[in-house]
Amino acid sequence: MKNLTACVLLIVIFALLLTVSAYGADHPRHYYEEQGTAIWDVPIPSKYIALTFDDGPSTEYTPEILNILEEHEAKATFFVVGSRAQENPSIIKSMVDNGHELANHSFHHPDFTGISKEELIHEMDNTSEVLENLTGAPPRLFRPPGGVYNDIIVNTANEEGYMVVMWSWHQDTRDWKSPGVQNIVKTVLNNARNGDIFLFHDFGGDRSQTVKALQQILPKLRKEGYEFVTVSELLQKHTKYNLFHGGNGVE
What we know:
Elements: H1 2-23, H2 29-35, E1 38-39, E2 48-54, H3 61-71, E3 76-80, H4 82-87, H5 89-97, E4 101-104, H6 117-135, E5 141-142, H7 151-159, E6 163-165, H8 181-191, E7 197-201, H9 208-223, E8 227-229, H10 231-235, H11 239-242
Parallel strand pairs: 1-6, 2-3, 2-7, 2-8, 3-4, 5-6
Helix pairs in contact: 3-9, 6-7, 8-9
């Protein structure tokens, strides 16, 4: 009986070791922040914030969002899905022409839970190729679908030349759930802090609430003195990250 128990224990340990080897060990958020390999927000004293939009482009909602951003002289970072970017080259070019930043959000937006290194590289590379062909420059920021992160995702993205960008947890608007325009507005305005990275979506269903909420959010934050910059510009405001983007920021 003891021998059987010992064998079972060895099998369990071996399986756990295989899992760690295959997928990488998980670490909490602060580990990656301390390493400077992934960010959720950027701690700075100045009133700069970054608006980000996931999953697009959308032929219906992305142009509306671009118009609102232009009206309020706001720059944003769009984490685009490669397959959708490929289908909508004119919207991608419009983003660039208006001074917005394009970032990598995978090619098919698959479930990243347990994704292999090879699959991850394939998703990133295909999107990078599409964006470079359309804009002349490859993206340097990556956000994993669903906000899934672990060692293999963060380390592989870094090896491929990306900074992993998440979002401020207190600024998750959950607009993908259509929680109501005023709920989106309250989440943003009640929690706005210097260096925040806001999460919105411009694809994946009815995004009319997001559009209407932005029409209220942008003028109010502007009145409070906030400036809307791209994520790369936000990174340049902090010495811990500016070398990644070749900037001369200060804390």
